[in-house]
Amino acid sequence: MKKYLALLLSMVLALSLLTACGGGDSAESEESADKVEVGIVLPTKDESRWIQDEASFTTALENAGFTSEVKYSMGSTATELSNVEDLVERGIKVLVLCSPDANAAGAAVQKAKEAGVTVICYDRLISGTDDVDYFVTFDSYEIGKAQGQYLLEKYAGKKDVPLYLYAGNAEDENSFLLFAGAWSVLSNAVKGGQFSIQNCPAVASFAGKELDIVKNRADLEKILRTINTKWNSDEAAKLAAANLKGKKKGDVAILAPNDETARSIAATFKADKDVKSYVITGQDADLASLKAIQESRQTMTIRKDTGELADVTCNMVKKILEGGKVETTSEYDNGVKKVPAVGAGFAVVDAANLPDLISEGVFSQDEIDDAK
Ligand code: BGC
Predict the structure, then answer these.
(1) Which of 90, 209, 229, 280 could form a disulfide with 236 if both were Cys (CB 3.0 to 4.6 A apart)?
(2) Could you give the count of Cα atoms lying within 13 Å of 340 in the half-sphere of its Cβ?
């Protein structure tokens, strides 16, 4: 009797397991409706730059016929990790990741790699890990050079112009590249007496010298930490206000790393009665900064065509998914490996060429007027 009971029990168990599998099937098909091929994780929604990228991506990937989803990490490495875990569970084949913290994204990319996902660093290099496959980016070193060059030309022939330097976020590799690029053109002008640095003694001993992104890593980091805006407009304004105390003013030059920080640094300088005029750089062509350029509150910005960068990424994704060879044009050292990279172009925008860009339809005056 016991034997029959055991047999009966095992039959019931087997049946229940079978039903569970059947149930699993339908859960699986529900899940597959939710599957995505490409996961995109961006650093924050609080800056207009990344909203531009989301729009460009969605269009480019949809046009190419890929399913994709964009998620935001809102400046948090923990959210970044859970975003990546979620996308991995949903079966992504390619992860496009732009991290809020280049040194802390290792766990997220490791998760993706373990699941066989190809990892593309997007616009910001991820450091200290070999779990990254490619890098698509604007050339931040060259952008920094263009910012430095702009200040140089605006003050051509002048002597002892007070120069205020600001960096992005020391947790973002782009900040190193930007600053090193700007310094590559400002360095001799500082040595030759065209500019006198007001707020960054750490860089003074490099006048006339290059700051190499790899060889001078520790020096660069030290410099960046003293002029670190963390890409945040409030931090930038606070730093600028502190910097202006007891310093040389008059007609000044300001190296600001991007538009968000440029607008708030500019406002701080403008409010100081001893600042007669200023030339300030920027980056991203935020609509609010185009407005600031038209109102002479900001002097220049850099237009980075996020549509082009999204297309470049999309072509790479296509190659990866079709198993073709991915073409790259340069490489970036992330401390562990040289990451093969491909880029997109940029252009300087200021009051002189902005009217042309508006008449060509690149920007509309209405959207500039509406910018906050
Ligand atoms: C990007 C800039 C952006 C900044 C702050 C950098 O990595 O290259 O375009 O303004 O991050 O988000």
Answers:
(1) 229
(2) 9
- Judge whether 204 lies within some domain: yes
- Among candidates 298, 279, 315, 300, which has minimal Cα distance to 346? 300
| Dist. CA 98 → ligand 1 center (Å) | 10
**Ligand 1 atom, smallest distance to 138 CA:** 8
- Pocket probe for ligand 1: among 231, 263, 306, 308, the residue whose CB has the most ligand atoms within 8 Å is 231
> Closest Cα to residue 168, out of 177, 156, 157, 158?
177
The pLDDT assigned to 33 comes to: 57
Best mutation site among 50, 176, 230, 283 for ligand 1 pocket (most ligand atoms within 8 Å of CB): 283
Domain that holds residue 364: 140-304+349-370
Q: Rounded to two decimals, what is the model's pTM? A: 0.88
Summarize pLDDT for 175-232 with one digit per residue, the tens.
999 999 999 999 999 999 999 999 999 999 999 999 999 999 999 999 999 999 999 9
What amino acid is encoded at 314 in this protein?
A: C
Please tell me the total count of domains within the chain.
2
113 and 218 both lie in a single domain:
no
* Residue 249 near residue 274, CB atoms below 8 Å: yes
Instruction: Tell me whether residue 120 is in a domain.
Output: yes
Q: Which amino acid is at 80?
A: E
CB of 43 closer than 8 Å to CB of 100: yes
CATH of the domain at 145: 3.40.50.2300
Q: How far is the CA of 144 from the centre of ligand 1 (A)?
A: 12
> Quick check: CB of 283 below 6 Å from ligand 1?
yes
| CB distance 236 to 253 below 8 Å | no
CA of 341 to the centre of ligand 1 (A): 18
pLDDT digits (tens, 9 = 90+) for 25-63: 444 444 555 889 999 999 999 988 899 899 998 889 889
Nearest atom of ligand 1 to the alpha carbon of 137: 8
Q: Can you tell me which atom of ligand 1 is nearest the CA of 174?
A: 7
